[in-house]
Amino acid sequence: MANSQFLEGGGLTSPQGFAATGVACGLKKNGQRDLMLLVADRECAAAGVYTRNVVQAAPVLFTRKRTRTGRARVVVINAGVANACTGDEGMARCEAMASAVSAAVGVSGDLVLVCSTGVIGRQLPMDLITAGIHAAAPLVSTDGGHAAALAIMTTDTHPKEAALAIATEGGTVRIGGVAKGSGMIAPNMATMLSVLTTDAQVEPRELQRVLTAAVDRTFNRVTVDGDTSTNDTVLLLASGAAGVRLQRGTADFAAFEEGVEVICTQLARAIARDGEGATKLVTVQVGGAADIAGAETIARTIANSPLVKTALFGNDPNWGRVMMAAGRAGVPFDPTRVDLDLAGIPVVRSGQPVPFDIDIASAALKATDVTVALTLAEGEASAECWTCDFSYDYVRINADYTT
Amino acid sequence: MANSQFLEGGGLTSPQGFAATGVACGLKKNGQRDLMLLVADRECAAAGVYTRNVVQAAPVLFTRKRTRTGRARVVVINAGVANACTGDEGMARCEAMASAVSAAVGVSGDLVLVCSTGVIGRQLPMDLITAGIHAAAPLVSTDGGHAAALAIMTTDTHPKEAALAIATEGGTVRIGGVAKGSGMIAPNMATMLSVLTTDAQVEPRELQRVLTAAVDRTFNRVTVDGDTSTNDTVLLLASGAAGVRLQRGTADFAAFEEGVEVICTQLARAIARDGEGATKLVTVQVGGAADIAGAETIARTIANSPLVKTALFGNDPNWGRVMMAAGRAGVPFDPTRVDLDLAGIPVVRSGQPVPFDIDIASAALKATDVTVALTLAEGEASAECWTCDFSYDYVRINADYTT
Q: Cα angle at A249 between A247 and A252, to 5 degrees?
């Protein structure tokens, strides 16, 4: 990307005007950080993208409504309890959580956004939450991004952060972000949360457009269409602290759009790589499709196939499963004109098996980054999505999550 | 079912006019039976239901065309090689397989149906297949149904057979059937094959209608909509050997329809219970839906959720995952009016958690038959589907299927 560079070790607080922290308030049994607080030094333009699940957690209903105003200043996130399927009491506790933050940081309650992740169907323990908020408030700092990243983890094995700087005509602007992974990415994602920040100045309506487009091509490429959890949320706050105003139609705005997508891509791929029990990041590419929607549907169907994912875990070049998954995606194509490569090795040409050395193929599949590339002969459209393999540890992690 | 009774130990050859066997021709590495032959003593009315996968194996293309004539007399099935993604050569070998059967049993080639199941992308070893067919031909017998059931197994842990007799006005008719399981039932079924026989006399067109309706409510309730493999096939042959002609509109015909559905249900549930690595049969019931299609979609989405299935394996009453899966099915409903029971224990009423004893619930989930019952408040429609839990063994079985 021209005019931009990644900020090594950067994250949520790399852009100017943002302070954050993460504390342990006692929701996680192991005493680790479980409450994140992000506070901007001024009112920000704000945008949000939310789960499409029919069952939506209280904080999703709450925060969606808030971001419709296009303004926010604070984000609070707890990990451990999802506050989903908790009825009116759950909504009251979500509101109480926002009020506690408002009081603790001295910001109008209207500007506080709330996210939760964890077990569904349990009420938030408000004593712990409130104490945690008051403990966190004085600790927020401009180098607190990493602590924040730690505090939103659930079954993630490591924190997920990224930041970059873009040289624009008006000066440098920065985009930072943090994300927490989903249990399994696809097809049945646990909660995925991400918060992005920027010090560019962008109108709320434009900010929402940029975020929606970026999420569609990144986070939504890690999940099945519609396969969002009760709590999934991506937020973007623009402080304007860099003193650079970006307007649609300019090259700088385009660079900003691209920058948001790059950060989202980094975080989305990090989520896929860190799927529960994952041993590798799997990139599924579908090309030669009649349209992008069809390419995406086929790519997601392959990426969600347990039979494909277990074969990839076992480094088994069982390409027939990829063909089967592609064929059941509901998108018509001519199977006699299909090419397929696994980890760079041609296994199908024009729909027919290509002889290959199974040991070499199996060795290639042992990489931590594996690409499954299917090329149709229907048109010019292509799409890519990301997933992970499916291991014993996935079953172990999920067989006794609440007991 | 009035006027009908299960035939203990019955199967494919319980109806009159059918002889069968299963032999080992060397496709299975362990030397077990891998070739099934069913021969009727006369030309039969024949019906077939096939995979909806875009990628269809040669025997599916071949047999579908044959059953359009409504007549057949012989079914040959091999296990071990699916003859899918094998191009023109695969079709030629499928035709050669039918010709070999025709010669071996002395039946016109037009009346031979072929099914294959196993690894995709490998050509049939015709020397083994042909030798197997010639070995099997003289062995077919009216008590060979069980050997046939053994010969079509792949990762099945036991054979699947059922038969019943119906007392009609014109005398007794019998329906028998055999099935082989799918690797995992849902969402990404390996090949499911089933062959049914009856000694009733039924017109081919009526036979097809009966089979299509029964499959829709039974075998298709074990799979995700469209999630059929490259080879899935269900066949029904009616010999008429009982000398009882059944015509639509009569009570006897209705009893026959019901009988076919009962046999399909038995076999479908047996397949679900024997899913790869399964420790239990899971019945997902969705009631109170606006329409049957919606109820079915929600039931299937729950039944296909890896997070739900791993929780059931772990006997973890993590009902939030059921709510999440229901919510992502794409069918609108009011989540605040939902009731949910796990293994008969109320866990959600009117969308809110009901306190329950987690140890009692976990113990109840240890049963080999577990029901997940979700009741919406949208209407009167309901649907049921069957699946299994998702265990370590599923991963083990599938991680190195071909290597």
A: 65
